[in-house]
Amino acid sequence: MKKTLAGLGKFNKVIAISFPVVLSILLVRMQSLAHRELSSPECRVQKWNIPVSLTAENQDALTQKQKAPLIQRLPVTCCQGDTSCLDEVLYGEIPVKQFKIQNSKFKIEDPDKKALLRAIAHSLQYLQTANALAAYQNYQVAGITRDAAFGGLPLRDRVFKSLKRFRELLLKTNSATELHQAIEREFVLYQSVGQDNKGSVLFTAYYEPLYAARRVPTAEYRYPVYGLPPDLNSWSKPHPTRLELEGVDGLQGAKGKLRGLELFWFRLRLEPYLAQIEGSARLQLPDGTQTAIGYAGNNAYNYKSLGRELANDGKLPLQGMTMPIILDYFQKHPQELNIYIPRDRSFVFFQENHGQPAQGSINVPLTAERSIATDKSLMPPGALALIHTSIPFVNPTGKIEERIVSRYVLDQDTGGAIKGAGRVDYFLGTGKLAGDRAGVTVSNGQLFYLLLKSQN
User: pTM for this one?
Assistant: First the structure.
């Protein structure tokens, strides 16, 4: 799924959009992980940062157009009593099922472990495709590709082998601590240098929205999304902008190159636009059935965010801006959508996926809480990663609060606004709740990729 997200803020923060959002989220104060303690006093966030000695060793590479986005280090040892170091939800007290693989039976915790195993299976499937072979042949990141310490094994094969071994450990271990200890024994970690060359990565989140839509226009449902033009490759360059394609009000597409390409119609102008930002959407049709649309292509322009434009015009302050605040502004000033949406020259085309799950850029289904998007010019597609950051969750009272967590995830997507070693977008699933959480996910953390040690 090719996505672009709304970027804003002093540090070019990128925030996923949710619509509508609950009023209580507007009151959530997002805190940077860089300024929060872990559960035990002696264990600070700095423990996760890249050691100064490693940073110094790689300084030359880092200054040469970021040629070394990943630095090898040993797994982070958990502080005593620091549960945020572990992916504890994999071993929650929930009913277990039997899972059969290679003629052996293992216990699986459901649903979190099952979801992670499903995401691993998708990556293993991808890594055996011609697309993966081509992607890894073009992947030339210094310090990780055909590392001599691994006998010159091609990176795609190392990633595949590491995923299979991690799956075995996941199935055999009985606790998050046991899994972590096995990883310490058998894996090395490659940590992203982040946005500061010290390991600090900005995390945001995205989701698959759910909207009411129609296959034919009505007086109420007037705003369309469009399929991929069959002659897009023959369009003169630069391609037409959003304004040239759909007009100021978003209703002029039938007068130009988009005529006859309408797929579905929406009631609100923001809805097809937000679907373009997220790269996919699930649609509720009037007969009670659902279908889905997914990314099919774009007009080759960089995304320009609504939030940044509002700040540039003095309509909203940069400090403390979130997507709920931006959406609240447009709900109060809907006429200004015709001013700000056309400023974004980028335009996304869709295809109907007939209810299939949202897909990532490596053409496998995304898994809620277990798939991430990164800059694929720097990070290995389909690989197993560990993220350590602050994520919003819904507590028993229905309010959203943050928790510092570690999660094993699969790198299965990318995005137009996800650039550099210091950016990760975390997939939170489908629907309003996922959107509410995604809309307020802004946090600093760390990103690691897991690869087997050479003797394994």
Answer: 0.80
